[in-house]
Design a protein that fits this description.
Helix 7 crosses helix 9. The chain contains 10 helices and 9 strands. It is 46% helix and 22% strand. It is globular, with a radius of gyration of 21 Å. The strands form 2 sheets. A 6-stranded antiparallel beta sheet has the order 1-2-8-3-6-9. By secondary structure, it is α+β, with helices and mostly antiparallel strands.
Length: 274
């Protein structure tokens, strides 16, 4: 039985366009109709399974885990897993004048609409970082989200044309260095970059700043420490380098979505979910 998790649904878009809906579909069966034509753009990223993509231009291509499908408006197409099987996929539906400009310039029309995006962890992280944050409310937030989507699309197109192995290897090394030093500026120095150059490249490749990545590591450590009911919050705060329990709790709530006390209470009641 298929399951769908809606990550993002914007009822209103910015003046330049943006994401209408972004979901993860588990055990999906693809497009069930013989062919369909959509009025919007769609990005599909398959994370499990294999199948086929076909369209009215005569394209008939295999699709496997780690492949993305980029679909433009007005193109009759069909895609899905092998008969009797299923696959897992992220899909993002987006539209707007800025993407129409991409289309008119030929940036979204490719010889092959199926693009190999590997390693999967790298691209899955890029996608979830884009769609997994809080919903955009203001016009400026909607525009920022649209800009990040364009950065993702640019890298996807680049991945279809060039080898991104150097970028992916650099990001992996940058993450390892941040985790080892827990000092973003020292990590930049270690890799031979100015802080600003390091920050910009890290954000472009990962979808978040190196500071936010460092915070995510701290919060993962905090979650682990909170599983022990004997550890006091002030001890966790001190261990992780926060000036006091208040600032730690505030950051934890902002990152995780629950206060430390709420998180501890939940894992005590339902430990199998964490």
């Amino acid at each position: 039985m298929w399951e769908e998790k809606v990550y993002k649904q914007n009822l209103h878009l910015s003046a330049i366009g943006g994401i209408k809906i972004a979901c993860f579909l588990k055990n999906g069966v693809g497009v069930l109709t013989a062919r369909r034509t959509l009025p919007h753009y769609t990005l599909v990223y398959v994370t499990r399974g294999h199948g086929t993509y076909r369209d009215a231009s005569g394209t008939d291509l295999p699709v496997k885990a780690g492949d993305a499908i980029l679909i433009v408006p007005g193109l009759e197409h069909w895609y899905g897993p092998a008969r009797g099987e299923s696959w897992d996929e992220f899909y993002l539906v987006f539209e707007g004048p800025v993407f129409d400009l991409w289309h008119e310039a030929g940036c979204l029309i490719r010889e092959s609409p199926v693009i190999s995006l590997r390693p999967m962890d790298f691209w899955r992280d890029r996608i979830t970082r884009l769609i997994g944050g809080a919903g955009a409310l203001s016009e400026s937030e909607l525009i920022s989200e649209t800009v990040e989507l364009q950065a993702l699309l640019a890298d996807i197109v680049k991945a279809g044309e060039d080898d991104m192995a150097d970028d992916i290897a650099w990001l992996s090394k940058a993450k390892e260095t941040i985790a080892a030093t827990m000092d973003v500026r020292l990590a930049a120095q270690t890799l031979g970059h100015s802080y600003e150059a390091f920050r910009k490249r890290f954000r472009k490749l990962s979808g978040r700043s190196p500071g936010r990545y460092r915070t995510s590591i701290l919060m993962e450590q905090a979650c682990e420490m909170l599983t022990d009911p004997k550890v006091m919050l002030r001890d966790i705060s001190d261990e992780l380098g926060y000036c006091d329990e208040y600032h730690f709790s505030r950051q934890f709530s902002k990152t995780v979505g629950w206060s430390p006390s709420e998180y501890r209470s939940r894992i005590a009641r339902e430990p199998e979910q964490f």
